[in-house]
From TrEMBL:
<dbReference type="InterPro" id="IPR051328">
    <property type="entry name" value="T7SS_ABC-Transporter"/>
</dbReference>
<keyword id="KW-0812">Transmembrane</keyword>
<feature type="domain" description="ABC-2 type transporter transmembrane">
    <location>
        <begin position="409"/>
        <end position="611"/>
    </location>
</feature>
<dbReference type="InterPro" id="IPR023908">
    <property type="entry name" value="xxxLxxG_rpt"/>
</dbReference>
<protein>
    <submittedName>
        <fullName>YhgE/Pip C-terminal domain protein</fullName>
    </submittedName>
</protein>
<keyword id="KW-0472">Membrane</keyword>
<dbReference type="InterPro" id="IPR013525">
    <property type="entry name" value="ABC2_TM"/>
</dbReference>
<dbReference type="GO" id="GO:0140359">
    <property type="term" value="F:ABC-type transporter activity"/>
</dbReference>
<feature type="transmembrane region" description="Helical">
    <location>
        <begin position="596"/>
        <end position="615"/>
    </location>
</feature>
<dbReference type="InterPro" id="IPR017500">
    <property type="entry name" value="Phage_infect_YhgE_N"/>
</dbReference>
<feature type="transmembrane region" description="Helical">
    <location>
        <begin position="538"/>
        <end position="557"/>
    </location>
</feature>
<keyword id="KW-1133">Transmembrane helix</keyword>
<feature type="transmembrane region" description="Helical">
    <location>
        <begin position="511"/>
        <end position="531"/>
    </location>
</feature>
<feature type="transmembrane region" description="Helical">
    <location>
        <begin position="432"/>
        <end position="456"/>
    </location>
</feature>
<dbReference type="InterPro" id="IPR017501">
    <property type="entry name" value="Phage_infect_YhgE_C"/>
</dbReference>
<dbReference type="Pfam" id="PF12698">
    <property type="entry name" value="ABC2_membrane_3"/>
</dbReference>
<feature type="transmembrane region" description="Helical">
    <location>
        <begin position="477"/>
        <end position="499"/>
    </location>
</feature>
Length: 631
């Protein structure tokens, strides 16, 4: 028999019948199925990061800048993150975020602390410090999720740095603008100062111009005074002559005054004798027997008769006094008045010239006053300009920073790198290999269980032929696989931990979870083989491919297309990978308990299917005696 004939016979054998033809077609489609699903699932995982839950904690209380503006950079960053839809952001409290990352509700958490805005503004106050963004990750949730989170934080840091840099540059330019404005004000003040100085100079010139006429007027005044002095040189002689004349008048008037005084004395003596005559008459009348009334009537008549004498006597006495006074000063007054009248024209001329000089002096004084006023106004403007220049320059100086060298260097460093990232890792895989270890350990456990049934028969034919209990037969077929699977796990775990040097945080628990995982996978594949026979092996291979793309072994499982979400929830490998991550990296053991319960449910369910298969196979059929497809 030739090789070609043997090949033809084998092809005819595996394609004889309907089911073998379908098996060949399915085997041909396995590479396509694997490649298509895997590439579909991982074509663009970054496009689906918005399905990855992440916690956002905004504790920033904001800050007030030196110009009075209120800044809340934390809210700005949060708004930008949420509106960007890069992740499924959830704004929560710090405690909820930490617990969420710990139990896997959130892949990571981003925290903006209370003083975030204040730190970003610190450079402007010359108390520079970096703003801190806190990133909380947990490799037990997903190793690459933490890597992606770091990239997100780097992007946030870059964005904030750009904004802070732009604001810092804006303030710097604004400071230069302020300095320029203040310098312009200072220049205007200097201009005003120059104008005031010019006006002061003009006022001084006016003062000089006014001083000339004032000097001329003063000279004329001196000339007038000199002339007045010349006109009054003979005044002493004239005064002496006046004294002499006054002496002569005094002598003449003395004679008249004496004569008048003599007449006055005689008149007074006459009046005295008349008083004596009145007394004598009264005495005689009383002696002659006249009554007192008659006496008084006679005396009254005599008094009335002598009234003119008494009046004349009074006038004589007054005239004598007046003549005495007139005699004393008449001549002096006459001579002095005549001389004064003769000298009056010259005196009047001198006074006129003096008045003219005084007028010129007054005019000069007016010009001097105006010049002094202009000078004063110019000096006032000079003072105002100087004040404005002073104030403008002082205010400008206040606007110019003057930090010391350490502060300036620190400020420059902070402006160049305003944000620092402080990473807080709840758990850490330590290396890329350790990060992928949970996925590959789970995958290896499934493959190990799969190849076991290439040699092992899922159900004992002898037990079935003997009519044994279906559960007993199912357990009898499952236990050899469990034992061999346990051996696979022990050998694999020993090599991984001792040779590859990947050390789990909980080694004993990790080994126990791997044994549970192996027992569960053996049970699933045992059930498929027992229930479906050769087709069950093919289904086991398909399930392997489906779990490769849906278990979340590399990227977070939320990055797979939404139509594949049911595969993650419905197949066991995702739970195995999740439990191994938490055990190997030190994550929440509560999540491990949930994963273990789900795997245990798969184990029990698979054993139930195996029992059902054993129950059915107690009856022999032609297809069992001569199956169409043997793998």
């Amino acid at each position: 028999m030739t090789a070609l004939r043997m090949a033809f016979n084998e092809l005819r054998r595996i394609t004889s019948g309907k089911l073998p033809k379908l098996a060949v077609l399915a085997l041909a489609l396995v590479p396509l199925l694997y490649a298509a699903l895997y590439l579909y699932a991982n074509k663009d995982p970054y496009a689906n990061l918005n399905q990855v839950p992440a916690a956002l904690v905004v504790q920033d209380k904001g800050a007030t800048a030196s110009d009075g503006t209120v800044k809340n950079a934390g809210e700005d960053v949060a708004t930008e993150l949420i509106s960007g839809h890069k992740f499924d952001w959830h704004r929560v409290s710090a405690d909820d975020a930490e617990e969420g990352v710990r139990n896997g509700s959130y892949t990571f958490a981003l925290t903006l602390p209370e003083d975030f805005s204040q730190a970003l503004l610190s450079s402007g106050e010359f108390t520079p410090r970096q703003g801190v963004i806190m990133l909380t990750t947990n490799d037990a949730n997903n190793y690459l999720g933490s890597t992606i989170a770091n990239q997100v934080v780097a992007e946030v840091r870059r964005s904030v740095s750009v904004k802070v840099g732009a604001e810092a540059a804006d303030k710097l330019l604004l400071g230069f603008s302020t300095i320029r404005a203040k310098t312009v004000e200072a220049a205007e003040g200097a201009t005003t100062l120059a104008d005031g100085q010019q006006e002061a100079l003009t006022g001084s010139q006016k003062l000089v111009d006014g001083a000339g006429p004032l000097a001329d007027g003063a000279a004329q005044l001196a000339a007038g005074l000199r002339q007045l002095r010349d006109q009054t040189q003979d005044l002493p002689v004239q005064a002496q002559r006046l004294a002499d004349g006054a002496k002569q008048v005094s002598d003449g008037n003395e004679t008249v005054a004496k004569a008048a005084e003599d007449y006055a004395a005689k008149a007074q003596a006459l009046v005295g004798r008349l008083d004596q005559v009145n007394g004598d008459i009264a005495t005689r009348l009383r002696a002659a027997g006249f009554t007192e009334e008659q006496v008084q009537r006679v005396l009254q008549t005599l008094t009335e008769a002598r009234a003119p004498v008494d009046d004349a006597n009074g006038k004589v006495q007054g005239t004598a006094g007046q003549l005495r006074t007139l005699a004393n000063g008449a001549k002096q007054v006459s001579d002095g008045a005549a001389q004064l009248a003769a000298s009056t024209p010259a005196l009047t001329g001198a006074i006129t010239k003096l008045d003219d000089g005084a007028a010129q002096v007054a005019a000069g004084n007016a010009q001097l006053r105006d010049g002094a006023t202009s000078l004063r106004d110019g000096e006032q403007k000079l003072l105002d300009g100087t004040t404005q220049l002073r104030d403008g320059l002082n205010e400008g100086v206040q606007q110019i920073p003057n930090p010391d060298d350490p502060t300036r260097e620190s400020t420059a460093d902070t402006i160049g790198d305003p944000v620092n990232v402080r990473g807080v890792s709840q758990t850490s895989a330590g290396s890329y290999g350790a990060g992928l270890a949970p996925f590959f350990l789970g995958l290896a456990t499934w493959i190990g269980a799969f190849v076991l049934f290439l040699l092992l028969k899922p159900l004992s034919r002898r037990g079935l032929a003997a009519g044994q209990n279906a559960l007993r037969v199912a357990l009898g077929g499952w236990l050899p696989g469990v034992l061999l699977g346990a051996a696979q796990v022990v050998i694999m775990f020993s090599v991984v931990t001792l040779v590859v040097d990947i050390r789990p945080t909980h080694p004993v628990e990790t080994l126990g979870f791997l044994l549970l995982t192996s027992a569960t996978f053996v049970a699933v594949l045992h059930a498929l083989n027992a229930l479906l026979g050769a087709v069950g092996k093919f289904v086991g291979l398909v399930l392997l491919i489906l779990q490769l793309v849906s278990a979340g072994g590399t990227f977070p499982w939320q990055t797979i297309p939404v139509p594949l979400y049911p595969l993650h929830y419905g197949l066991p490998m995702g739970y195995a990978v999740d439990g191994l991550r938490h055990l190997m990296y030190g994550g929440s053991l509560g999540s491990v308990g949930k994963d273990a319960l789900i795997l245990l449910a798969y184990l029990v369910g698979s054993l139930a299917l195996s029992t059902f298969a054993a129950y059915k196979q107690r009856v022999w059929t032609p297809s069992r005696l001569k199956p169409e497809l043997v793998l």
